[in-house]
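Continued from yesterday's entry.
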Amino acid sequence: MDFMTALDVAASGLTAKRTQLNIISSNLANINTTRTAEGGPYRRKTVVFQTTGTRSPFDSAMMDAMERELKGVKISHITKDNRPFKIVNDPGHPDADEFGNVRFPDINVVEEMAHMITAMRSYEANAASVESIKSMFSKALQIGQSV
């Protein structure tokens, strides 16, 4: 594995985790949203990850079998959660029905925070990987300069 392949793998992880953090932030921001542009309460969103190659087809053809196993990650798609809405009786709410019930998104703050911490740790691990790669590259350049 060369330096650029390692950077590609880490960069794909950084990109995927940044997107996941954005989705989690959106879920937390809309925890009390009862009216969206599509109609109805906000639907919680989740990301689906997928492995992705780090090489062009030409590069892949030239690599040995061990290096072909290196994969990055990307967001395959973003799905909307189909959990039922929370029903809260609040007759004074502008979106209350004739019985005074309001439908809120079923977003669990604890669950979202756990996902956020996991995504942040993964993001930090990928960032540390990039720093290690940069350090190794810098040390490799110094080998030739010391003579």
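--- second protein ---
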Amino acid sequence: MDEFNASKPIYLQLADRIHRQITSGELKAGEKLPSVRDMGIKYGMNPNTVQRAYSELEREGILETRRGQGTFVTERQDRLVQQRDKLKHEQIEQFVQVMQELGYSAAEILSGLEQYLNDMGKGDA
């Protein structure tokens, strides 16, 4: 189990974690999430923190609360595709920002990434 860090509110870290689980396919469209209480126990956090993460994801259209049934991953594929693209963009943005801070040009970043992906395809990365 990964630890939460102090640099970002815990509810946002939990929301990010759920985002990643949905993007990776670990959580599927229409799948029920653990109750707020069970999720709090699982991650050792206050249920109010879990509720805040769920509310944030519901506001973004990623989760849906069904009265008397619980919280589910949305079945709206357009929202899930949009979130997947958003997560990809955020990760690329962070990567490029770090590389630029290290002094690499766009061409060097691109060639390095291509080399890495090619090596990965060969099992070298």
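The helical segments are 10-24, 36-43, 47-59, 77-101, 106-121. The longest strand covers residues 63-66. Will compare against the first tomorrow.
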